[in-house]
Amino acid sequence: MEVKNICCIGAGYVGGPTMAVIAQKCPHINVTVVDINEKRIAAWNDKDLSKLPVYEPGLDKVVEEARGRNLFFSTAVDEAIDKADMIFISVNTPTKTYGKGKGMAADLKYIELCARQIARVSKSDKIVVEKSTLPVRTASAIKSILDNTGNGSDVKFQILSNPEFLAEGTAVEDLLAPDRVLVGGDTSTEEGKEAMEALVSVYANWVSRDHILTTNVWSSELSKLTANAFLAQRVSSINALSELCEKTGADVNEVARAIGMDSRIGPKFLKSSVGFGGSCFQKDILNLVYIAKTYGLNEVADYWEQVITMNDHQKRRFAHNIISTLFNTVSGKKIAFLGWAFKKDTNDTRESAAIYVADELLSEQSNVAVYDPKVSEEQIYADVDYLNTRSSEENREGITVYEDAYEACKDAHAIAILTEWDEFKTYDWKKLYDQMQKPAFLFDGRGLLNIEELEEIGFVCYKIGSGKE
Ligand code: NAD
Ligand code: UDX
């Protein structure tokens, strides 16, 4: 079967870039991305490409090439479902904030709504693709909804799992040259195999077939949670060692380099930091822990939960170190944050370490001054408000957002690097130093800057994982 019309439900950080690349690479396929969020769809359709709702290097060019040709963004969900022969579900699957599994399980209400809508609207056979990250065995729930809540017409559904491995900040690069594409499906039937081949053929337009893996649907679903758990576990492992380095005079970057040259360990994902953020790692590990617990696998659950415990500790430790270094009081002191996004080259702030560090400092009555090149003031306030630690008014009193980094740092007692934006390396650090209160403290939560040079200027520096000899 040849796919001619694709619909993707969910125009977020995954749905938007993924479909843009599919459309760019498959001009013979019509791709419609739909969302219930009208503002988001309007932003995807904005003539001014700097207003796209997702900032990713290179994405504007891809959208410019395909939009209006075979890539469309719309709020007409039913219409797009009806027309499509393949439907990607790429809606959010956040951690549940209520009821059974609160704080751990994935909230599948948006997924279920999509499945019900597809069942209600479909008049012809469809291949339904799970693009969202889902608990293992969700495909059977989706299948049951699709097969039992339809509109009476004799429609056949095939469910595939096709998790997305892109990382934000490098989404376009990752989509154009993925390490692998994973397609899970019903390998026991001819129809299942045909559906898998239909999806494989879409990717084969630009990904070589030896990079496209096909597995049974449960392996595919579980591989996504596992991949994120392994990646996050590396960050927590190196962060755990960063604290020991600080006590012993070792340097975590040197340790990371030394172990990373062992080809069995490898050099990537060993950068010690203020703690990992992003919408995926914490959510997916909590989900994995929850699934393990529901099967009674308590040791398995406890093992993975430590990755989160360590990450929470790392964020808190960074904030407490600022407080204790500033003579145990930051009350009334301006602390400048360079960076708010959870990593560079994205405007996404979900679970960013900066939010938690700011929250600790605000509780100590500090004045937090934030500069981030891509994150809006509105988003920064929304992020701290979401924690519910204090009132929205108090958060606005405690945090000031600047459009200029030099203004943010002026008269500050300390600068903290929370995101590794390249532009921070190019700043005139002598000028920043001259405008600060003295002693001028600098806390590099990303191992971004040349500490020796900054110390020569006069800064008192703290670098994660760097011990005093
Ligand atoms: P997102 O919140 O940016 O986007 C999800 C979109 O779905 C939102 O715009 C929302 O309005 C829309 N939506 C929700 N319910 C809908 C419905 N019933 N009909 C139409 N639209 C609806 O989320 P995201 O970051 O793109 O993540 C989507 C999924 O992909 C999640 O399961 C996530 O775990 C997974 N994932 C994310 C990343 C990442 O880097 N962000 C990477 C890999 C996988
Ligand atoms: C992650 C996975 O990498 C990706 O495959 C999956 O599809 C979605 O989740 P993402 O969260 O976008 O991607 O970014 P990633 O590069 O993995 O970084 C996650 C967090 O870990 C960031 O806060 C980053 O700064 C931090 N990190 C990463 C470190 O602190 N040290 C590292 O060595 C690597």
From TrEMBL:
It is an enzyme of class 1 (oxidoreductase). Keywords: NAD, Oxidoreductase. The keyword Oxidoreductase applies. InterPro entries: 6-PGluconate_DH-like_C_sf, NAD(P)-bd_dom_sf, UDP-Glc/GDP-Man, UDP-Glc/GDP-Man_DH_C, UDP-Glc/GDP-Man_DH_C_sf, UDP-Glc/GDP-Man_DH_dimer, UDP-Glc/GDP-Man_DH_N, UDPglc_DH_euk. Residues 336-451 form the UDP-glucose/GDP-mannose dehydrogenase C-terminal domain. Pathway: Nucleotide-sugar biosynthesis; UDP-alpha-D-glucuronate biosynthesis; UDP-alpha-D-glucuronate from UDP-alpha-D-glucose: step 1/1. Belongs to the UDP-glucose/GDP-mannose dehydrogenase family. This is UDP-glucose 6-dehydrogenase.
